């Protein structure tokens, strides 16, 4: 039973196309994220959503638009794809911590390797 | 924002050797995690360790929050330990906002 699942795992598309990556978590978490991993393996946050509300948008081009229909889903839509968008995109989720026994451990999906040609 | 450094950047070991990976961070943290990214690209949770020491089999981790560092210790390394090890932190006050990753330590374990 996968905790955080992304689809598709691989995506090859031409420049200029529009594509979406879906993410779902079954952990009951209230926060979801999208991260981008570049060719040097560096992981950088793109977006963070808490209870369907956008919390962080880290200098990501407007062509990237996250959509959170409910707490369990955070999809990433990309318009007018460019060569530089080629990367691995990771979705993650965690629970915002409150109280003494808080546990804010984050769990990641398996990643979506996007290749723009 | 918070800065995260990891050392060494690359490490090559013979199977059976032990190693210590280090993560230094620039500010107080709510959350610190260690991940292993295997050669297939999956990010595997190793430890959730904002403070203290934990052990899981051949792996153990220690975070000294007051000194702003964490260490991951791998004993009797195996070829399956190869991959990139990341530490990620969540700065105090940033609940549910942003895990900042270090640049990773690339580990190669040779048979």
What features would you describe in this structure?
The complex is a heterodimer of chains A (117) and B (111). Helices cover 0% and strands 54% of the residues of chain A. Chain A is an all-beta fold. In chain A, the strands form 2 sheets. In chain A, strands 2, 4, 5, 6, 9, 10 and 11 form a 7-stranded mixed beta sheet that branches. In chain A, strands 1-3-8-7 form a 4-stranded antiparallel beta sheet, with no helix packed on it. The model of chain A has no long low-confidence stretch (mean pLDDT 91). With 111 residues, chain B is mainly beta. Helices cover 0% and strands 59% of the residues of chain B. Chain B contains no helices and 11 strands. Chain B has strands at 4-7, 10-14, 19-25, 29-37, 43-48, 52-56, 59-64, 69-74, 83-91, 100-101, 105-110. In chain B, the strands form 2 sheets. In chain B, strands 2, 4, 5, 9, 10 and 11 form a 6-stranded mixed beta sheet that branches. In chain B, strands 1-3-8-7-6 form a 5-stranded antiparallel beta sheet, with no helix packed on it. Chain B is globular. In chain B, 39% of the residues are buried. Chains A and B meet through strand 4, strand 5, strand 9 and strand 10 of A and strand 4, strand 5, strand 9 and strand 10 of B.
Number of strands of chain B: 11
Classify the helix fraction of chain B into a percent range. under 10%
Sequence of secondary-structure elements of chain B:
EEEEEEEEEEE
Oligomerization status of the protein chains: heterodimer
Instruction: State the name of the first-level CATH class of chain A.
Output: Mainly Beta
Q: Could you write a compact summary of the structure shown?
A:
By secondary structure, chain A is mainly β.
